[in-house]
Specification:
mainly beta; Immunoglobulin-like; 9 strands; elongated
Length: 140
């Protein structure tokens, strides 16, 4: 019997906002001899709740294999501020360079409701590793 491979991505729902994340290694942009490993990641955000929410900001916690932490904060995602009605989905891809062969990412998005209230939607930890299996998102 073969053990089931560990899932490399994450899938977390907070206050009706589902965030799926997965990453893959990009060998052509990496330079292992120079301690430069580049990963692409795909995020799918789906409003599975009953109230509209607009993404305002992001916070990433990136850990490399030496346990060095980098916090990345910014407004929106890929220059956008998706406003999701119930049932709507937004997907984007981005990248992350690391000085080590593997690491992890996790974090949160700040969303705002129509009444002005804000909440944090978690992005579960996902792995940046050359041998991590690619994870299909809801979009395929």
């Amino acid at each position: 019997m073969n053990p089931r491979p560990q899932r490399a991505g994450s899938d977390v729902t907070t206050e009706g906002i589902r965030v799926e994340a997965s990453a893959h290694y990009i060998p052509k942009d990496s330079n292992p001899e120079g301690h430069q490993y580049v990963y692409g990641y795909r995020i799918t955000i789906t409003n599975v709740g009953t109230r509209r929410a607009r993404l305002r900001s992001r916070h990433w916690v990136i850990l490399d294999a030496d346990n060095n932490r980098q916090d990345v904060r910014g407004q929106g995602v890929v220059g956008q501020f998706p406003d999701l009605a119930p049932g709507q989905r937004f997907e984007y891809t981005s990248g992350c360079p690391l000085p080590t062969k593997w690491g992890t990412m996790e974090g949160s998005y700040t969303f705002e409701r129509e009444d002005g209230s804000r909440f944090e939607s978690a992005v579960g930890r996902f792995f940046l590793a050359p041998n991590a299996p690619r994870v299909a998102t809801a979009a395929g």
